Amino acid sequence: MPSVSTSYLASLIDGSVALGAPADALYALVPGGREAVQQVDRRLPADVMAPVLNAAAEATGLDSIGLRIGVQFRPATFLDVGYALAAASTIREALEINMHYQPLTQEAVRTRLEVCGNDARILLDPAFPDAEDFRRVTEAILAGYASIGRWLLWDQVRPVVAVEFRHARPCEETCAYYASLFGDQVTFGAPADAMLIDAGLIARPLPNSNPALVKLLTGRLNARLAAFKAGSSLRTQVMGVLQRQIRSGKPNLDDTARLLGMSGRTLRRRLQAEELSYSELLALTRKEAAEVYMHEINMTLAEIAGLLGYSDQTAFMRAFKGWFGEAPGAYRERLQRKA
């Protein structure tokens, strides 16, 4: 059964609620409800995505709600996968990163790239055959590609040449949104869902290119993908939760356990059984996050300390030196020299 990560599903629900959909009604469609969605790195059946967006469209009267949510997607929506594609050297590399690690966010759709002469096609291979029922999920994904493509290129001119959809022509409100987002070349009843772009764009150097950061992140993502395919380990699950928690302060074991859908006592017992230490996992999560943030040259050390959950910069600097053997300022200077 194809699955979707709770973080990806939450982005669809949050986007729908921001557009006026009732949160409780959407959570009621999810197995386990709101509590299940709030459990970080849990997987849920991917076939819940279409009912959520379809119910949101009915509740708000916005037939185009999938498109409206998709245009809000940014690399940060996809966490480490997003950071990696944002640091890619070209659009092609960004697409390849997204395609390879796509299962970490959702398995409802797999993406592939075909290049023929001056044309490049981003094709969607859906896990669910009903094009009409699944329409708004498809629209959100292709709108996300268009939006993130502009963001990566720093170019607000539409990079899209044409779009093809399997579903029938929708209402005029949605067609008008298509035109504003994709242009006039939109086809319905096509054999596949696809976006056509100029092949020259996929090789264009990206302004935020950072090969060292891509190498760092894809190394971690390879480990996460292997763990996902094997059945996520407790270590991976706990660090996934901590990665999100540290942004809002210092996590504690009970809160982490709650986000994993268990009691603090159960988590403590399971960690002990696997000879894992909560404090060591927290420190390792902070270290990995710090390593990424240090590549962001516009981010101050004080901002990084805050994102890692440190109440003061001194504690962060002391921890950083323990992790990497040098002060964060010296570490960043060395990165810049290498770059």
What's the arrangement of secondary structure elements?
Elements: E1 3-5, H1 6-18, H2 23-27, H3 33-37, E2 43-45, H4 49-60, H5 65-70, H6 79-86, H7 91-101, E3 109-116, E4 119-126, H8 135-153, E5 160-164, H9 172-182, E6 186-187, E7 193-198, H10 199-202, H11 211-230, H12 234-245, H13 253-259, H14 264-273, H15 278-293, H16 301-307, H17 313-324, H18 328-338
Parallel strand pairs: 5-6
Antiparallel strand pairs: 1-2, 3-4, 4-7, 5-7
How is this structure best described in words?
With 339 residues, the protein is α+β, with helices and mostly antiparallel strands. The protein folds into 2 domains: 3-202, H-NOX domain; 233-323, Arc Repressor Mutant, subunit A (Orthogonal Bundle), CATH 1.10.10.60. The chain has helices at 6-18, 23-27, 33-37, 49-60, 65-70, 79-86, 91-101, 135-153, 172-182, 199-202, 211-230, 234-245, 253-259, 264-273, 278-293, 301-307, 313-324, 328-338, and strands at 3-5, 43-45, 109-116, 119-126, 160-164, 186-187, 193-198. Strand 3 (109-116) and strand 4 form a beta hairpin. Helix 6 (79-86) packs antiparallel against helix 7 and helix 6 runs antiparallel to helix 11 (211-230). The longest helix is centred in the middle third of the chain and has 20 residues, at 211-230. It is globular. The model has no long low-confidence stretch (mean pLDDT 89).
